[in-house]
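Lecture 7, part 2: worked example. A protein chain together with pyridoxal-5'-phosphate.
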Amino acid sequence: MELREQTAKEAAAFYGLDWITPSNVVVTGGSKPALYASLLAIISPGDEVIVPIPAWVSYNHLIELAGGVVSEVPLTDNFDLDPDAIVGKITPRTRAILINSPHNPTSSVYSAGSLKKMADALKGTGVTVISDDIYAKLVFDDDFTPVPSCGFENIIIVNGFSKSQALTGWRIGYLIAEPAIVEGVSSLLSHITGNASVPSQHAAMAAMDNHDMPPAETTALLKHQRDLVIKAFSSIPQVKYHPPGGAFYFFIDVRAITTDSVDWCERLLMQTGVALVPGEAFSAPGFARLSFVVDEAILKPALEQIVKFVSDGVEK
Ligand code: PLP
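Predicted complex, written out as structure tokens:
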């Protein structure tokens, strides 16, 4: 209860949503079980869940494991939501839309305009927005509007302590939803995971008590590392990207240098030891994801290797 109280208070203030109380919060063993339990609680076999692509690698698996059908809708060219395309995909079987801002893998931040347009369009449809807010505290600019603050009628907020508080291995997360969903999810999880580990619940409370969310030095360090990547990439203009608005990824467009991003990532790995994730994992061939949340002593030489690999490349 103490963690639910603290989480409800923090979330209500962060999003400006006064309906959030401790009875709307379910604490889970990381945000992945929160996502999965949310899907299991609201979809019946054959129901559709709209997922903007590129999308984080687990979404399709979680939806399919829950018996749902994935309905993919591309983001815009600058990785914003396309409300018209999303609304155009809604069918009588559509139960939910799963969105994430800041966004893995592109690190983009969805614009308030497109979110509010989508919130208006969804009114009265009964479609639930599942907002994966795991990066909502890791943003680089003031120009950020969290998804839950945009007036969605039916929303489940999923979050956790893995990113903003770097408590990944402690497996602690939560969801915030209306009472009927809270009841369903709690009942379901009582049979699957039981409660989230109690030591981890205390760790989460300590993290909230003792630190800003996240600590100021975390954001400063991430900005510094983001700028190191931008500097390194300035010498290889054939690699295109949108600067990250949050999270800690660069989703680079490598279509000017290769026709096969899986093969390109494999050769980069074998020749230099640097691992990027090919865009195929996120339903976006032709791209590759770079995570810059590593020690600078690893990041700097890795960037040098990427620059050399691209500069020496003989394709395409
Ligand atoms: N959602 C997104 C978009 C993620 O990138 C991740 C982790 O990579 C998660 C959820 C899972 O986080 P957790 O460690 O809380 O399960």
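The longest helix spans residues 216-233. The chain has a mean pLDDT of 95. Keep this in mind for problem set question 3.
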